[in-house]
Amino acid sequence: MTDHHAAAPPAGPVPWDKAFALKLLADMVRIRRMEEKSAEMYGAGKIRGFLHLYIGEEATAVGALHALSPEDNIVATYREHGHALVRGMGMGAIMAEMYGKREGCAHGRGGSMHLFDKATRLFGGNAIVGGGLPLAVGLGLAGKMQNEKRITACFFGDGAVAEGAFHESMNLAALWKLPVLFCCENNLFGMGTSIERAESQTDLCVKAASYNMPALKVDGMDIVAVHEVTKQAAQRVRAGEGPLFVEYQTYRFRAHSMFDAELYRQKAEVEEWKTRGPIHTFSARLKAGGKLTEEEFLAIDAAANAEVEAAVAFAEAGTWEPIEDLLKDVHTS
Amino acid sequence: MSRKLNYREAMREAMHEALTNDPRVFLMGEDVGMYGGTYAFSKGFLDEFGPERIRDTPLSELGFVGAGIGAALGGMRPIVEVMTVNFSLLALDQIVNSAATFRHMSGGQFSVPLVIRMTTGAGRQLAAQHSHSLEGWYAHIPGIKVLAPATIEDARGMLAPALADPDPVVIFEHAALFNMEGGLPDDWNVDISSAKVRRAGKDVAIITHGGSLPKALAAAEQLAAAGIDAEVLDLRVLRPLDTATIAASVAKCHRAVVVDEGWRTGSLAAEVMARIMENAFFELDAPVARVCSEEVPIPYARHMEEAALPQADKIVAAVKGFFA
Ligand SMILES: Cc1ncc(C[n+]2csc(CCOP(=O)(O)OP(=O)(O)O)c2C)c(N)n1
Ligand SMILES: [Mg+2]
């Protein structure tokens, strides 16, 4: 087992105005509280199937998605609750979907791994590793062919980099200079397989460079860095420079899914990475800069908890899609 | 004499035996080693057999299934595990265009003695990218053998003859069976060529395989209470199908219902029905019926998933239709 030592926690002043900083902090807290509750509801048997938590990785989705525009396309994986929430899907619709209720974003047909939202241009949680990458290339192609200003941001894990779909998608996007932002959430593991046991070249930016695609590496636990780098990357893609690859170096604090004995990593490694936890390190920086008081933090947390309670109540009160609708929407008509 | 074990333990024992007895055998796939196997089938193997023979792969289904084919051509006896049938679609090119074709295409020069194991089927609320039953597709392909162990005995016994087979064998393990317990007789004897009657009866033949077998047996019990004596035939081997045993059951019962978790259109059930028409048409007292999955990607919500799949009560209703 390889040790993946954590660097020093993110530190330093936050170059944002207070309102913006607190908005991003609040989004991280909302994801955290929502997912803690999801895990609890999984234990209670309310949520079933596979549930993959994003806990620990919140700075990546929050920092990156706030650097994009509402008209941009988002393609995500099965670890996408946070992306859906930050993108603007209601927490109630997310929770109801995880419950399998009709009031969920997909009427309970998809569950945790398949959150879709046309209004916010979220083209799904995809549970085929690497499955979203070619789709993002096609969305990028459509955007380019129709002279749209939008770009497509495609989120995927380090594990997906080994799939053939990664190679083919990177090549096509670069070859055709498509407006795609490849957002690789490198949490060092694909299920139980650490990156050095899966990749001959563990520097993923070097891989991207082999497709003649610019690549940026960023500390995915540092929301300031994530946001600034993504903003710059998105601008370049939007300006027509072609695709860009960003590697967010992050870490998942929880098990891969709810069925994982975590035999493949040391508890101490997880604890070490928790010292870099995106919420407490960002809060500390804001406090040090006089942009956050403890009372304000508690208020953010209380609001998140209230939103979670309301989402759970919404899901609980939800209804089951009638079985007569089983065959609805297999085809358009 | 017999002893109790569950499906997962039976399969684990079979792999353990193969790895112990034949140095050419190795296990390769995603998270088979350090993680202990996605469904804990190979827990402890890495420590016992080492990383050369318990080979964790990156997420590269096309690559490692193709590498399994190459290793088989090169003299090894690989067991390649694909987590779920849905992910095997990423490797379909290698299975269909290489593994299945090499012997024939090379004029009999190159065989591919490879075993591919994968999880199939629904019932765990994993939604439409983790729940499908595509073994019928594989059963369409000449050049591969397709197995569906649905009992403890078959989980324990099918791997060895599959590894001994000179050609590629694909084994479908239905996820709903993994925790199923049963007795394994000491004198178990398993082939990979025949269908087996799991419950003898005389009024109707329920023909099924894999995860639907326990449902068919449950239906047969309910039918017995209603005075209908159902025979349950487990296909076991989906390619090549044991047509003679299917025809014999039909000849005995004169009525048949085929139960298949695949979708109805173009299903394995359709193939079984066609064979009954070809081989036992004049034995039939009624048109053959079938219970298949509804034609919809498998939904997440429990009630919808249950409604989409064959169930004991649907089988009972189909059989009662014969006697209405
Ligand atoms: C094609 C395919 N193969 C295997 C799996 C099973 N699986 C689901 S998630 C996962 C790990 C993926 O790791 P990574 O891409 O790093 O994403 P992370 O889970 O770390 O966010 C695996 C092996 C799958 N869903 N799809
Ligand atoms: Mg990962």
Task: Explain what the structure shows.
The complex is a heterodimer of chains A (333) and B (324). Chain A has helices spanning 18-43, 58-65, 81-87, 91-99, 132-145, 164-175, 204-210, 223-238, 267-274, 278-288, 294-317, and strands spanning 73-77, 122-126, 152-157, 180-186, 189-190, 193-194, 215-219, 244-249. Chain A has 333 residues and is of the alpha/beta class. In chain A, the strands form 2 sheets. A 6-stranded parallel sheet of chain A has the order 2-1-3-4-8-7, with helices on both faces. Chain A has a two-stranded antiparallel sheet with strand order 5-6. A 7-stranded mixed sheet of chain B has the order 3-2-4-5-7-6-12, with helices on both faces. Chain B has helices at residues 7-21, 45-49, 61-73, 85-88, 92-99, 102-105, 135-138, 152-157, 159-164, 213-225, 243-253, 268-280, 302-308, 312-323; strands spanning 2-6, 25-29, 54-56, 77-84, 115-120, 145-147, 169-174, 181-185, 196-199, 204-208, 230-234, 237-239, 256-263, 289-293. Chain B has 2 domains: 2-185, Rossmann fold (3-Layer(aba) Sandwich); 196-323, 3-Layer(aba) Sandwich (Rossmann fold), CATH 3.40.50.920. The mean pLDDT of chain B is 97. In chain B, helix 3 packs parallel to helix 5, helix 10 packs across helix 14 (312-323) and helix 11 packs across helix 12. The longest helix of chain B has 15 residues, at 7-21. The interface between A and B is large, with 41 and 35 residues. Thiamine diphosphate (TPP) sits between chains A (79, 127-129, 157-160, 185, 187, 189-191, 256) and B (30, 59, 61, 83, 87, 90).
